[in-house]
Amino acid sequence: MNTKQLALIKKDIRGITSNKQVFMVMLIVPLALTIVLPSILVFVTALVPDAASDFQALLNMLPITEREGNQDQIILRLVLNKIMPAFFLMIPIMASSVMAASSFVGEKEKHTLETLLYSPLSLKQLFQSKILAGFSVGMMVSFISFAAMMIVLEIEMLFLTGAGIMPDISWLIVMLLIAPAISLVAIGITVRGSAKAQTIEEAQQRAVFLIFPIIALVIGQFTGVILVSTWLLLGMGVVLALLAALLMKGAVGKFTYEKLLR
């Protein structure tokens, strides 16, 4: 990466943070998924005794080694380490696709794409810069959201149950493998549609479909059909990483100056 690419990345990041409407969307969704939703689950579990029966199907799927402690602590561990990782994956998808959509399509809307294409950077370098800008914002939002979620949940759990609950290895896989991979997948899908798209919303439409498998995974957990395990997350991460590599390779190679200026 050269200094010109770094300058373009900084420009894109400043552009998204200065756009109050887009930036608020990128803050509200992570806030709801990492603070509001888990807080509701924690308070319901700790304060409503009958809530335990709603998790019974999932509790029965837990290994014996994970059933230590009282029922509230077991359920809270279940919420933190089995249920929340699936919800969390929506954050890198959302943040990265918003950023990627506002890159090339945003340049079209502002009528600055022609100027950008006349810059000293090659088309490949332009794409690399746009992708890195989207990836950087997606990961920044993801890690800040994770840190905020853990701080709030630990305080709530200590206050309500008198004991904190540590995240397990599943979160290490999510943060270091799945979140970066699914972020790149979302960027790749969004960028591939950016040449034909004329608005940011149109460019984002393809990446939205990534949410549906996540929703299916969440529903499967609550119905007791499937339980997110470390091995399932690891397998998912490997598949997403391979898909991301293919999309990144294809996204950069398929565009020409003529296609972008249509």
Description:
By secondary structure, the chain is mainly α. It has one domain. Helix content is 78%, strand content 0%. The protein has twelve helices and no strands. Helix 5 (90-109) packs antiparallel against helix 7 (123-161) and helix 8 packs across helix 9 (200-208). The longest helix is centred in the middle third of the chain and has 39 residues, at 123-161. It is elongated and about 65 Å long. The model has no long low-confidence stretch (mean pLDDT 78).
Summarize the structure in short:
It is built from 12 helices and no strands.
Secondary structure layout plus pairing:
Layout (H helix, E strand, L loop, with lengths): L2 H16 L1 H28 L8 H6 L9 H18 L1 H20 L3 H5 L5 H39 L7 H24 L7 H9 L2 H12 L7 H24 L3 H4 L2
Helix pairs in contact: 1-7, 2-4, 2-5, 2-7, 4-7, 5-7, 5-8, 5-9, 7-8, 8-9, 8-11
Averaging pLDDT over every residue, what do you get? 78
In total, the number of strands is: 0
User: Could you say which overall geometry the principal axes of the C-alpha atoms support?
Assistant: elongated
Give the N-terminus to C-terminus distance in angstroms: 28 Å
Q: Which bin fits the share of residues in helices?
A: over 70%
| Structural domain tally | 1
Total number of helical segments? 12
Multimeric status of the protein: single chain
